[in-house]
Here is the input.
Amino acid sequence: MTVKKLLVFILIFSFAFSIVGCRSMRIKHKRKRDARKIEREKEQREKEAMAEYQAKVERQGNIQTPETRKRMKAQFKKSEQYHSHRKEFFLKRWWKSLFGNKRKTGNRGQG
Here is the structure.
């Protein structure tokens, strides 16, 4: 008789614990699903904003006269020539000098 009671007791508690576990798992999955949905919506908004920006840039270029477009193109090339010789940002240079790709010398694989 006690074995039957023990068996029933174990079944009841195992069922109760499994229900609690399923609920927590559902909550976790719902949170992940909601996070993915929010991320997809954010990416979609960014994509739409970029497309809108590109359309505005194209429209701005189309309403310029050919002479203005030619001047803008020449100015861009001139600017690139003037600024191409600039050094990198000083923090980048420091980082490279401190932690750059330093090759270790020695006899690896030999010996």
Notes: The chain is about 80% helix and 0% strand.
